[in-house]
Amino acid sequence: MYSGLYEPGRSVADEQGIRKAGLKPPVFESARGQFRATLYNSPAPDGKAEEPTVSERILEFCDTPKSKDEIADLLEINTSYYVVTKYLHPLVKAGTLAMTHPDKPKSKFQKFYRI
Fold it and tell me: pTM for the complete prediction?
């Protein structure tokens, strides 16, 4: 628990203390007015890969076609519109994700799958 006063330029979780303790670095996320800070209290696993990015999680999940609501549930995001604009459209434009109905991008039956 952090009990000191906030000082500009100094994070609540002291970076040197985190490194000395061998902990994973904190993760800071901001989405639609909500802020989440994840601090780890167990040592970082040596030689293991980092956690997958959101895009990697979506691509792995979409081995079979999934709806925008299913993908939003995976990411624990309440609004599927945010998921579509923030993650799915960029993946479709990049050519790593495809739509089952490309001629009707707003169809309620639209699903996304990995190419």
Answer: 0.58
